[in-house]
Design brief:
Layout lengths: L16 E4 L12 H41 L10 H32 L1 E3 L6 E3 L2 H32 L3 H11 L8 H27 L5 E2 L7 H18 L12 H12 L1 H20 L3 E2 L4 E4 L3 H15 L13 H4 L7
Antiparallel strand pairs: 1-6, 2-3, 4-5
C-alpha cells in the first residue's frame, strides 16, 4: 500500500478524506509560548537570586558566629552586628528582587497556560489547561507580590523611621526584651507573619497547579513543587515562633533560649533548606516553560459507506483461504476401495 504523503488529501487505500491540523514545528509557534518562555526565564532568574540570598545569609551567620558566642556569654549586652549588617541589607535586597521576579513569572505562567490549547481531531474537543487550574499560578504570583509589599513595609519602611534596621531591632530585643522595643514593633511582627502566610499560600497554589495539569499536557520533567511548599511551611512556623516574642504575645523572660533557638534555626537550617528548595524550583520553572500538548494531528473521514465496505471486504478477502481454480471429477468405485467401501 502506498504510504500517505504530507500533501495527500485522500487516503490511497480507502479514498478517505484526510484532515491534518498543522502542528507547531518550533516552540514559538505554540499558543502562549511567549508568556511561558518569559515565565521560565524570570522564574529561573528569581530562583537563582533566592539561592544567592540564602547563601549570603549563611555567610553572614558564619561571620557573626564569634560575636554570637560572646553574646551568649553576656546576654544582657546588645550585640553589635557591625559589618554583618551590610550583608543583612544585601540579603534583604536580594530577597525582594528574587521574589519579585518569581511573582512576575507565576503571573505570566498562568496567562500562558490559559492560551495553551488545541483541538483534538478525534474527539472534537479542545485540549487545554482548565481555567481554574491555570488561575492557580497567577493567584500565587499575586500572593508573592503581597509578600513583597508587606516585607518591604516592615523590613524597610518602619525601620527607616526608627533609625535601626530590622535585624538590629531583633538583636536589641534579644538583649533587652520588650521594654526596649519601639511602639510599632507589634505591627511589624504582624506584617511579617501575614507576609509569610501569603508566601505559604502561594507555594500551595503552585503545587495544586502542578498536580492538576490534564494528562494530555506534557512536561519534559516533574512539575511538582513540594520542596518549596515544605520550605514555606517551615518558614511560617519559625516566623510565628519568633514574632510572638517581640510583639508581646509571649513573655520573653524565662524563654530566652526558645527565642534564640528559633532565630538561629531560621538563619541556618532554613537558609540551607532555602538553597535546596529554590534550586529545585528553578528546574521546575524550566519544565513549566516547556509545557506542550499530546494531541494527534491527523484524522481520516470516509467519503462513502460503500467505500468503507469495499475496503473491509477487500481486507477480508486477503486473509481468506484461496478458492480452487481447477475442479476434479468425482471419485470412482475403484478409487474408493480400501476405505471401507461396500459394493
Amino acid at each position: 500500500m502506498k504510504p500517505i504523503g504530507p500533501d495527500d488529501k485522500l487516503c490511497p487505500s480507502c479514498n478517505a478524506i484526510i484532515l491534518i491540523e498543522r502542528k507547531p514545528t518550533r516552540p514559538d509557534e505554540e499558543k502562549g509560548w511567549t508568556l511561558r518562555h518569559f515565565a521560565s526565564i524570570a522564574g529561573q532568574a528569581g530562583c537563582a537570586v533566592m539561592v544567592a540570598q540564602n547563601a549570603v545569609v549563611l555567610i553572614g551567620v558564619a561571620a557573626f558566629a564569634a560575636r554570637g558566642v560572646e553574646f551568649l556569654q553576656q546576654p544582657n549586652v546588645t550585640p553589635d552586628l557591625g559589618p554583618v549588617s551590610v550583608l543583612g541589607l544585601f540579603a534583604s535586597a536580594l530577597d525582594l528582587i528574587g521574589l519579585t521576579l518569581v511573582a512576575a513569572a507565576l503571573i505570566a505562567l498562568g496567562a500562558g497556560a490559559m492560551l495553551l490549547r488545541r483541538r483534538d481531531p478525534f474527539t472534537e474537543e479542545e485540549v487545554a489547561v482548565p481555567t481554574r487550574t491555570a488561575a492557580f499560578p497567577a493567584a500565587a504570583g499575586l500572593l508573592v507580590i503581597v509578600w513583597v509589599l508587606l516585607t518591604a513595609t516592615w523590613r524597610v519602611v518602619f525601620p527607616a523611621d526608627i533609625g535601626r534596621s530590622a535585624a538590629q531591632l531583633l538583636a536589641d530585643f534579644a538583649a533587652g526584651g520588650t521594654p526596649v522595643m519601639p511602639a510599632s514593633m507589634p505591627l511589624m511582627m504582624g506584617l511579617w507573619v501575614i507576609a509569610t502566610i501569603a508566601l505559604f499560600a502561594a507555594a500551595l497554589l503552585l503545587g495544586f497547579f502542578g498536580r492538576r495539569l490534564p494528562s494530555k499536557i506534557f512536561a519534559p520533567r516533574s512539575v511538582k513543587t513540594v520542596a518549596w511548599t515544605d520550605f514555606a511551611l517551615l518558614n511560617l512556623i519559625l516566623t510565628i515562633g519568633i514574632a510572638v516574642f517581640p510583639s508581646g504575645l509571649v513573655a520573653y523572660r524565662g524563654l530566652e533560649i526558645v527565642y534564640l533557638s528559633l532565630l538561629a534555626t531560621k538563619l541556618t537550617v532554613l537558609a540551607l533548606f532555602g538553597v535546596l528548595s529554590y534550586w529545585t524550583l528553578l528546574s521546575r520553572f524550566d519544565a513549566f516553560g516547556r509545557l506542550s500538548l499530546m494531541v494527534p494531528v491527523m484524522k481520516a473521514i470516509p467519503q462513502e459507506v460503500s467505500t468503507v465496505t469495499a475496503v473491509v471486504e477487500a481486507e477480508a478477502a486477503k486473509t481468506a483461504p484461496p478458492e480452487p481454480t481447477v475442479f476434479l471429477p468425482p471419485p470412482t468405485e475403484d478409487d474408493m476401495r480400501g476405505i471401507e467401501h461396500v459394493k
